[in-house]
Amino acid sequence: xxxxxxxxxxxxxxxxxxxxxxxxxxxxxxxxxxxxxxxxxxxxxxxxxxxxxxxxxxxxxxxxxxxxxxxxxxxxxxxxxxxxxxxxxxxxxxxxxxxxxxxxxxxxxxxxxxxxxxxxxxxxxxxxxxxxxxxxxxxxxxxxxxxxxxxxxxxxxxxxxxxxxxxxxxxxxxxxxxxxxxxxxxxxxxxxxxxxxxxxxxxxxxxxxxxxxxxxxxxxxxxxxxxxxxxxxxxxxxxxxxxxxxxxxxxxxxxxxxxxxxxxxxxxxxxxxxxxxxxxxxxxxxxxxxxxxxxxxxxxxxxxxxxxxxxxxxxxxxxxxxxxxxxxxxxxxxxxxxxxxxxxxxxxxxxxx
Length: 353
Fold this sequence. Notes:
Layout: H1 7-10, E1 27-28, H2 40-45, H3 48-52, H4 63-73, E2 80-83, H5 86-97, E3 102-105, H6 111-118, E4 123-126, H7 136-139, E5 145-149, H8 161-170, E6 176-179, E7 200-205, E8 218-222, H9 224-235, H10 244-255, H11 257-280, E9 284-285, E10 292-296, H12 302-311, E11 314-315, E12 317-318, E13 327-331, H13 335-352
Parallel strand pairs: 1-11, 3-4, 3-5, 5-6, 6-7
Antiparallel strand pairs: 2-8, 7-8, 9-10, 10-13, 12-13
């Protein structure tokens, strides 16, 4: 770091993204990417003509994409905000609504603590219960920005909608942000609640269920006044933040929704298979509603299993936090990939018996 960087940034502990190693070909079960390509409609939408038009600025209002999303989620275009990945929305929200402080779980998406530190926000970290579920009552009456990943990451556990509603009602003067990055894999969305509560911000992404992690496309659905807040920040920082090709691909993805719904069903089936096979091997597996599972073994430590799998060409995600260091997060890939993963785990466990 240079001597010119201000001290608060020097001290910032930045987010650590999942590994993207280039040294050899891995089965990547570490960053919750989809094992499926984008739909044929998405591929076909990226035409030579569209590429040639990259010389022109993109539509800052993303009119076609907003309209497609509004129709898909049964809201109005004024209730939709689009961004360069859902992390942008999280960033804007911490900046815009965190003045009175922010509350989130101790075990959750790592970017929340980074944004809180970036804006020097008073932070309330609420421990998950002993079974790794969210303590609904602890999030009530916080009177500050409340941020909940649902299903949670890295646990994959879902908080029921009635408990989310209880939290929203108890914090009428603060924003409740529900991060639904993984909701399409068996969870229940709170989008309909945005029509009832003006303080609810529901955030989604095209990175997981819609196979577009590399396109960087996120969205929020909320009351139009909250959307106007986010638009104000966007137009004050980077109004052209979603490129032309991503907008075209996003529309095509929405219009081929059945393709992604079927892919999600397959991932759920593969998740159930993987959970069953790991339990046969003595693993503890948390009940996930995401495209990953969180599991630990009494035979081998979390870090050792991660390292040995990596040596064998399979990447999973390990976290160093004391409370979850025995666990690993395993992205659900194709059935073939999960079969290889299970076979490698069996080999490794055999070496440790």
